[in-house]
Structure formats: structure tokens, C-alpha cells
């Protein structure tokens, strides 16, 4: 309906724009009763903003006039010619007398009762929408927005958000609205909390956009709200899953992996989390099937709470506990699927009451919601994870269960990997320890102490090895090596190399020759068993290799012959405390092939200290090899009285924490054989020297008080000297050594290796070495710079063992 019937309008407005007087004509024109409108802002009546000139006159306190559209109480739009006259009240406060005449009255439901298209659009939009004027006062809101706000449009019209709801977060919304009106730029804002009339948490996304006229001037703004609760929680779940992917499984340690799972769950959606592993899994063994009709023993591996100190826990981390028969934990383990429970559920209540401590904790902390999710990987159950809520008001939802199952599934793979790694590491360590010496042998040539430290947690066992090998003539061989790679394969290769070294040492090869033979063995292993060996037997893969240091010390001459194959140089501490690293030719690592090794002979004073080690001792994440050698020099500069204490002192000084690689440290303090226990004779290349040698040997044994051994020794001396005269050559030397055994050595100038022969019935010779082998406990030969030495060892009288007659 349209018309131009004049109506009297008289209103008094104060300086703040609040209506103080409402005339009867204003009531008839706009439909508001005085008690509905007096005390409210006049701006709520404006259907459009005041013209610019009118606003300036109002601001300057001058008379003004202009046409303006006003809202009727029923939603009609009334166009009025207004006149504003300034006036003062009794307290000389400025007031405005506003009078007007109606120019037009347009009903919202014009024609056939249909709303204008814009009003229809606003009203029927499926999302909350509100429109505000330039002063951030509400002009219109659709029905969905009024439901979100919890108030009718009439109650909110003409008010700012701060006037509607003077509390957070509406203060933030009000500030953002004014920012949009000031800058003319759209603002996007997200909020999550509890919606009016709702019990659960909600999330909203708000778009606050400026409304501009044809000149680009901002005339108001619109606010559109979208319910993004599902998207918000989906993002939250994705964030938790992403956090789980980044944090869980950072180490190959079962306990730490379980702790990471608990930390992620507590920081994401649970108030208290426990991780229980089956007892067999906690011990590193294969998981056993979970019986439904028996108590299930588990070990509390990790737990975490939003409260300090896990006050909800009734089982300490590392302790064993058990689930009673038929309780929800057992049923969940057997079913292999997660489950949700409320504190009042009969089955859960029965399980809670089975433990007075658990019942007391549940009651004290008001735990109201529980989820149980089995740890399963590769079709095998490893344990059970409990998720509890007591500070979070909402119970666990089905989406929470799906999230928990996803996190636990990811963690289960990491737990299983850590379990498998721990088992393999333990197997490799057991294998390696079984292949290494148990304790140092009792030697006259030197005192030995050593330490073997496997790599720290998270690292595979390497192939470091060492050995102390007694040789003929009271000599001692020291060997330290490091196989390339880690794990059982490296340990197995190490065992083969250690056995080969012992075999080669038994035939008294010189250090450089021994390394050459060992190099050929490594190449052969690489060709036959290396990772790339299949179908390529004629080539080497380069994946099997090792470093090695081999040293032979002779306590009679007090000289040590050494050679190394790519191994760190040994350290020598002289009796006066000076420390130096021996300058030995480095040599190529074993497995390179084709390159020579060089041996160096070093004189050693009595009570000198040799330090042999692997590179794990001097290489570390926080320092390089040079710094490690400096620390080793410092530690050896003040050795303790006992070798065992010195070993500990070196490790304390050089190592800052758990080693990242295997470490071998071997210390050897040299001794000299007493001159009274060694007797040497030079023999001429004359057959008469045989009788002379027998006589001198018998006299020496008498002087040593070993007359009981004279007959056997004279036979051995006779055969060895005869053999040297017949098959060897000058110079010929006889040496007797009295130590833990009686050793007879005969050296000659021939390098031809002797071998046993079995003489036939009519043969006159061929029985010498066979006789020596029967009379002695051990015998053998070794090469020397001038020829060879054949030696025979027999126990001292009164000792067990010995050869035949």
C-alpha cells in the first residue's frame, strides 16, 4: 500500500541518539508504544542512513531537514520528511526535537503478500546473515541468525553487538565489525565454543564484508556465519594424526614409542592414557595368543595424564598387572577391535570394582568415559591402550574411537618394529659376545684389560672385535678390528674374521703377511656372500669390508711388530708417562685387494702401555677424530695403577654419553722375560754340534732344577738340531725358554717350511719331526727375517699333559 497522508511526528532525542520522548503521532505512524521505544537508540528506526549533509548538521548542532526511510513496527518502510531543531533541557544538556511529515508508506508485503526479492533472499538463506549500518548497528537479520543469537530481530535491531551481548567473544566481533567499516576490507574469523542452546562444542567461520554504494563508499556491512563444527573437528583429528605421524616411532625403543603414543593422545583428545603390552611382548619375545577364559598378564609400559604426575594411575610404569577373565579389556583384546564405555556400564563397572585402588581413582577423579583400543600390527595383538576422560565434559564419540584406532594402528607398527629390532639386536649382541673373549688370558709377556661397549639404544650392533692370542716363544698377538656394517650379518662376518686371525696366527705369520691373507679372505666373502653377490661371483660388491690392527710382542727381545689395515693408530704410553700415537703405515682396509701392507717393529720398554681401540671411541657426534684423539691422549696421560681402572678412566674422559657405534678399548702393559729364564747358543754347521747341543741343554735343565725333563728335552734338541744341519743352514741357533712351559727353539737360515713324514719300514730318516710331535705338547715353525724357527713346547715336570715317550 502506498500513500502520502500527512501524519504528525514529534520525537525528542538526546545527544547520544537515545529517544526520551515519544509522541502519540509517532506511535500511530510507526506502531511502537512509548514503553517499547523510549530509552532505545533512534538509529534502530532508520531503514537507511541519514544523508551526508544531515549528518554534518547533526554533528555540528545545527538545524537540519531531510528525507529519510524509517521502519514501521510491522516491518513496513515509511518515508518521512524530518526536521531537527536543537534545544537544551533544564540541565543545559543538548536535545533534539525531531518533527516530520509522512511522504510515503510502503508495505513489506506489497501486492499479493510476497516479500521483495532481496528480503526473500535474506530471509531464506540457509546460513545465518545479518546486516549492519555504518555505526555497526543491526539493520536486519534472517531467522537463522536470530536462532544463533538467541534473540528476535526486533530485540536486536538498532543495537551494536556489544549492546546486544556485552561479553566475550562479542567484544571481538564488535571490534572486527568496526575494522571492516573503517578499512572497507573483508575479514574472516573463526571461533569455536558452545553455541546457545547446544550442549557440545561448535565451531563457526564468519565472513564480515563491507557494503559499498556506487561511489565505493562504505554504507554498512554484512556478517555471514557458517557452522564449521564438522570441518573443525575433522581438522583437529587430522592435526592429531599428523602429530602422531611426526612424533610416534622416532626411536627403535619399545618403551619410548609407547610413551610417544600416550603423549600424542593426551595432547589431542584424552585426559589420561595408559599403554599396556602383553608380558611376552614386553620381554621382547613373540606375542602369544590372548585367551578369553584366562587372566591376561600385561606390563604397564607408558602412561600420561593432563594432570601432573599421573594421579589417576593405579599401576606404576614398568609394573605388571592383569585383566580378570571376561572383563572389557580381555574381550577387547580377543575381539581385536576398539570399544567405548561409560562409567556406569555394567561390564566396565565390574572391571573397575575388581581393583579397590582403581575404583577409588575413578571415583576421586570422576572418570566418566573410557575407550579401549588393542595394539595390533601385522595381524598380531601386542597390547591394549586405555583412553580416559574426566576433565573433558563430553564423552568419547564414535569419531573419537575412529581417531584412537587410527593413532594406535600407526603406533602399533612402530612398537612392533621396535620389538623386532630389540630382539634382533639382543640376538646380535649375544652372538657377538659369544664370539669375543670372555676374560684376558694369564700371560707372562703382558697384562691385558679390555672393554667392549655395544652401540647405544637406536643403533644396530656393529662388527667390532678384539683378541689376545698366545704365540710360540712366549710371544703374544694383539688384534683389534671393525667390520663394515651392523647387525647379525656384521657379527657373523666378525666371527669368521676372528677365527681366521687365530688360524693364521697359529702358523706364526708376520703381521703384514697375516693382513694380506685376511684381505684375500674378505674379498672372497664379499664375492660369495655380499649383498650384490647373486649372479656376480666374479665381482666384489664392496659391501663387505673391515679395518684391522695386528701386533706381535716378544717379551724376550722386548720388541713389538705391528701392521694395520685402515685402522686408527695405536697409542703408546712410556714408563715415564709420555703419550704418543705410533706412526704406522695406514694400509688399505681389508677387502680392497691388490695393495701391500707394511709392518713396523717398535722397541718397547718394560711397563710400557699399548692402547688399541676402534674408531667408535674417538668419533662422536659432538667432536671429530682429532678431538677424540686429544681426549684419548689426555686420558692416557694420567693412567691409574690398575689396568681395569685405567679402562674406566679412559671411557669416562673420552665418551660424553651412550656411544653411537660399537667401542673396543684394549690396554696392554708389557713385561720382559727374566734373563735367567732364557738361554741361547749359536751352533756351527757341524754334525758334532748335535752332541754338544744335547749336553748344553741337559746342563741348563739341571741348573733350572728340571732334571726330570732332561731325557725328553735332549731327544727333542737332537732331532731339531739334526734337522737344521741336514735341511737348513747357517746361522743355527738353539734357545731354551723356561716360562709356564719349557720351550725349545732351533733356528736356521732356510725358509723352507718343515712338514711331518711317516717313514716306511726300510727308510733311515723321516722320523725326526714325528718324534718331536710325540714328545712335545705343541710344536710348530715360524718364519724369521733370516730363515725359520722350529719350536717344541713341553709342560714343566709335575704339570699335566705332555707328549708321548
From TrEMBL:
Gene3D superfamilies the UniProt entry points to: 3.30.450.40, Histidine kinase-like ATPase, C-terminal domain, PAS domain, PPM-type phosphatase domain
Pfam families xref list: GAF (PF01590), HATPase_c_2 (PF13581), PAS_4 (PF08448), PAS_9 (PF13426), SpoIIE (PF07228)
SUPFAM superfamilies: ATPase domain of HSP90 chaperone/DNA topoisomerase II/histidine kinase, GAF domain-like, PP2C-like, PYP-like sensor domain (PAS domain)
Region annotation Disordered: where it falls in the sequence: 783-805
Domain PAS: 11-40, 122-158
Stored PROSITE patterns: PAS
Keywords: Hydrolase
Name the UniProt record assigns to this protein: SpoIIE family protein phosphatase
SMART domains named in the record: PAS (SM00091), PP2C_SIG (SM00331)
InterPro entries tied to this protein: Bact_Sigma-Reg, GAF, GAF-like_dom_sf, HATPase_C_sf, HATPase_dom, PAS, PAS-like_dom_sf, PAS_4
